[in-house]
Amino acid sequence: MADRYLSLTATAPGRFLARRLGLPQPAALRRWSPEQPCLPGVLLHLTAGETAVCDLAPVLARTGLPLAGPAADPADPGVAAVVLDATGVHDVDSLAEVHAALHPVVRSVAASGRVVVLGSPLEDGPDHHRAAAQQALEGFVRSLGKEIGRGRTVNLLRLTDADAAESTLRFLLSPRSAYVSGQVITVTADGSGAPVDWSLPLAGRTALVTGGARGIGEAVARTLARDGAHVVVLDVPQAQDDARRVAGELGGTALALDITAVDAGERIAAELPGGLDVLIHNAGITRDRRLVNMPAERWSPVLDVNLASVLRTTDALLAAGALRRGGRIVATASIAGLAGNAGQTNYGASKAGIAGLVRSLAPCALAEHGVTVNAVAPGFIETRMTAAVPLFIREAGRRMNSLAQGGLPVDVAETTAWLAHPASGAVNGQVVRVCGQSLLGA
Ligand SMILES: NC(=O)c1ccc[n+]([C@@H]2O[C@H](COP(=O)([O-])OP(=O)(O)OC[C@H]3O[C@@H](n4cnc5c(N)ncnc54)[C@H](O)[C@@H]3O)[C@@H](O)[C@H]2O)c1
Asked: Each residue of 196-227: pLDDT tens digit?
């Protein structure tokens, strides 16, 4: 369902009208394409606080953005991104350096540009001044994300090792993260360090996408295939025409399977005797009703598809050793699970359950199987699921985020591809919202 308001405000009279009436002014977002793989402009690398925890310069030099350095003219209209290293911020005085660094340059960040603030991991250490200052960065980033406008995003990345954070920095500083804003992502120091082909990172790997026949799942399948994966498009038997079409176009394989089958994991393992590298739990359904009107028949299928089958197939595939070392599991949560949503007690419960699964399983899956476990939590994404939402609720869903528009399936797909990347081994146990910094659950 086309976003007519976005098209209207892309015209000069529409923009004028929106400004005069104080209405939301969404900016067309710049997304990745083979012709435009990088944001146009330079990268400003700034520092706040005492000595930074790691040397970022070599990694930033590989992001594809030319480095301008702190001496660059802040009035330069070609600032694609600003990286502010605030890992050394340790008290309220050094927080003032965050203000001093960004205040003069924030205006010069181009439309669809990026502000990435780097912080240190939050630990329960004895230094409550450092803890306060580092936590303060979250409020700063989320507030700046809400006011910066023009399709620009602001995120906070907590890290200790620049190399382990390379895939994440590349993602956040590229057009692939167009709809990711206001997020706090923690990257540990234990990346594999193995060499990576950045142009075809999933070459030679097999990825399975549940619910891959359409919507977000189809976009994920296409994006993982773009990155070199052999993709298995799993969907219910009724969706096999679409599943076969998608798989055929990608040189992949269609797999007709209802993911709620009790032996779904075993059947996937049997279909893929060579094993699996990337497992994307995307299949999901809604059966909305307020709790007072919700019979068990509307509750159970949602919990079964969205949560129980994710737990069951994950357990079965890990137990069978079907996920190779270096493997990636990405499950699909939702902001409805993080914030709650009227009429969606079943759906909200199932999606919050995904966050619990990720948090609990991630450390032991990595230790025992060498597999990372993360989740994406989409906000309002333009798909058949949201096209069915009543008009006014749909309009509210589109506008109630910092980018004032719905995301596209490809935005979730690009985020999934970053989490599935072989160089993202240091990203584990994270729930990353792809919601344009939705006001819900903020
Ligand atoms: N669209 C949004 O705005 C949005 C927001 C938050 C979260 N999500 C989540 O993203 C995921 C994809 O959403 P979408 O909008 O693309 O949905 P969609 O309805 O367009 O597609 C879902 C796919 O999953 C498949 N599927 C359903 N039950 C299945 C089962 N038992 N076994 C195998 N396949 C099954 C369907 O056939 C379909 O192809 C879902 O988990 C959804 O909850 C979507």
From this structure: 899 999 999 999 999 999 999 999 999 999 99
380: pLDDT strictly greater than 90:
yes
Single pTM value for the model? 0.96
pLDDT digits (tens, 9 = 90+) for 232-281: 999 999 999 999 999 999 999 999 999 999 999 999 999 999 999 999 99
Please give the distance, rounded to the nearest whole angstrom, from the Cα atom of residue 173 to the centre of ligand 1: 28
Question: Over the stretch 22-34, which tens digit does the pLDDT of each residue have?
Answer: 888 889 999 999 9
Whose C-alpha lies nearest to ligand 1, atom 38?
Answer: 211
Strands, E assignment, 197-252? 206-210, 230-235
d(CA 195, CA 167): 12
Cβ–ligand 1 distance for 339 under 6 Å, the answer no
Does the beta carbon of 327 lie inside 6 Å of ligand 1? no
Ligand 1 atom closest to 335 (CA): 6
Angle at 397 between CA 395 and CA 399, to 5 degrees: 70
Q: Residue 306: CB partners within 8 Å, gap ≥ 6? A: 283, 284, 285, 347, 350, 351, 353, 354
Which atom number of ligand 1 is nearest to the Cα of residue 381? 3
Domain boundaries 206-434, CATH class? alpha beta
Give 71-123 pLDDT, tens digit per residue: 555 555 589 999 999 999 999 999 999 999 999 999 999 999 999 999 999 87
User: What span, in angstroms and rounded, lies between the C-alpha atoms of 69 and 45?
Assistant: 5
DSSP state of 213: T
Query: Is the domain defined by 31-186 classed in CATH 3.40.50.720?
Result: yes
Ligand 1 in reach of 422 Cβ (< 6 A):
no
Contact 285 CB / ligand 1 (< 6 Å): yes
Residues of the chain with CATH 3.40.50.720: 31-186, 206-434
Q: Confirm whether 347 is a catalytic residue.
A: yes
For ligand 1, atom 21, which residue shows the shortest CA distance?
215
Distance separating alpha carbons of residues 274 and 68, to the nearest angstrom: 47
Kindly name the residue from 5, 171, 179, 347 that is annotated as catalytic: 347
Q: Calculate how far, in angstroms, residue 112's C-alpha sits from the geometric centre of ligand 1.
A: 28
